[in-house]
Amino acid sequence: MNFLTLVSRSKKRKERHETPASSGEASWAQRDEDSTPIQKGQNHGVRLLHQPSVPTNTLVDIVFVHGLTGNAYSTWYNEQHALHWPSKLLKDDIPEARIFTFGYDADVASFWGGASQNRLANHAENMLGDLAGEGEETVSKDDRSIIFVVHSLGGLVTEKALQLSENNAETHLRQIEACTIGILFLGTPHSGSGFAPFAKSVAQALKIAGKRVNTDILDALKQDSQTLLDVEDWFGHWLRRRSEKGKAVDITSLLEEKELPIVGKVVTEASTRIFGYPMYGINENHMNMTKFTSAKDPGYKTVTRELRRWIKKLQDQKGRDRAIH
């Protein structure tokens, strides 16, 4: 589906999200034992898609976080190939992982509009609380490691959640930051110079979709850019603190290589790059860079290569720790 088709369906999409999925649509991700079924309708909060058949064999939790205008279903789903790759492919390629999604209201108008101008922090708080709640299911939760796979603004929601986790008064909430070992960013802006074009692209998308882009929403986008700048400032310092503690966080950024019709590139190369960490291209536009076609898709191979690399490092470290003790 191209972007023009996608945005033309935006009004219908909102209606679908507010209405429970029909029996014909019911389970879009095959339900594994002890997993939570999710549908094409609302899927807010943390949902478990898959866990190893022997839960005690879980080495890492992988959490998928969507961006603006997306949701826990559509962001990671290729409609043409009827493939939701986190639930259909990843469980075989990363058998040591529990796989989760986190969903939130990512409609642009409601995200930044209305009385609340600080929805980023609200979503981050909800995400942190939900993740900590899921952690209670883990047999040895203190040993659990977390990897986030995030798209667009979902990366900034994740960063804000980690900021709220660090130095939190509650032990179970601090655990989320302490257990994070890697973040895979897909089309996430990281620099102040990238936030203004990002907001402009969002506004253009709204206009194409036939939505009224009023000054209140645009003002909120502009005002919230300071919140985004503050989060990015914290994020850079946090990465350095973790490295200095000998607990470095793995980071990989993936860049959209194609433009959206009319809108162009939503996130530029300069805004995507995090200095000192790898960045690779995905030969798709901002909307489709998360919708892989098969296990042979070059984008999927890039994602799984990075995830396996990080997990191999984790396995090696745990092996060294066991040898010492």
TrEMBL record:
Its main location: endoplasmic reticulum. InterPro entries: AB_hydrolase_fold (IPR029058), DUF676_lipase-like (IPR007751), SERAC1 (IPR052374). Pfam families: DUF676. GO terms for cellular component: endoplasmic reticulum; membrane; mitochondrion. Coiled coil: none annotated. Residues 62-197 form the DUF676 domain. Keywords: Endoplasmic reticulum, Membrane, Mitochondrion. Residues 1-43 are annotated as: Disordered. It is found in: Endoplasmic reticulum; Membrane; Mitochondrion. Belongs to the putative lipase ROG1 family. This is DUF676 domain-containing protein.
